From TrEMBL:
Domain GOLD positions: 42-124
Recorded superkingdom: Eukaryota
Chief subcellular location: membrane
Protein name: GOLD domain-containing protein
Length: 210
């Protein structure tokens, strides 16, 4: 009985170590940025990918105007892989058809005044990644799905954190404006009260005629 429990525990430890090693191998190259796109301008970024790699691209407009922007993705030869107009957020995955630099562009040409702040993430999973080679295995397929879900949660957390910082900065700025304006009103009321007292006192002042 004791040997059976020991073997069962050993098997569970081996399974846990196996899953942990797979999760460590599943970590692909990722890049995350927050960029400001001014009006009438384009901002482009490049990411290297091998042929056959899985490239994931997510973005979210977090500030500016109607929270919309034009998005395009081009391959190394200039071919358009993805395009979207006036999008607020998006998630796009494609297979790299050619080795080289893929260009990810945000265009704010439609805006005349307002700049836009965009948070985006690019993930490249190489074709020889164990997650792709052994995806037919049910267990490893579940691990891949779990890894993708965790990355989605992390992206959502990054977005919530950015929005929270923006709202906090807005609230602090509003509070400062209220404090400054209230202080100005106090001095204005004091000055107005002093002027009224002086004017009324002067109006009822008895003047002697020599």
């Amino acid at each position: 009985m004791f040997m059976f429990m020991l073997d069962n525990l050993r098997w569970k430890l081996q399974a846990a170590l196996y899953i942990l090693s797979i999760l460590l191998l599943l970590v692909p190259a990722t890049s995350a940025w927050i960029v400001q796109v001014d009006s009438f301008t384009d901002e482009c970024f490049y990411e290297w990918a091998e042929q056959g790699s899985k490239v994931g691209f997510t973005f979210q407009v977090v500030e500016g105007g109607f929270l919309d922007i034009d998005v395009t993705v081009h391959g190394p030869d200039g071919r358009e892989v993805h395009g979207g107009s006036r999008e607020t957020n998006g998630k796009f995955t494609f297979t790299a058809y050619q080795e080289g630099k893929y260009k990810f562009c945000f265009s704010n040409q439609m805006s005349t005044v307002t700049p836009k702040r965009v948070m985006f993430n690019v993930m490249v999973r190489s074709p020889d990644d164990p997650a792709e080679v052994t995806k037919s295995n049910k267990l490893q397929g579940m691990i891949v799905a779990l890894d993708d879900a965790l990355r989605g949660v992390r992206n959502e957390q990054d977005y919530v954190l950015v929005r929270d910082n923006m709202h906090r900065n807005t609230n602090e700025h509003t509070n400062n404006v209220i404090v400054y304006w209230s202080t100005f009103e106090v001095f204005l009321i004091i000055a107005g009260t002093g002027y009224q007292v002086w004017y009324i006192k002067r109006f009822f002042e008895v003047r002697r005629i020599l």
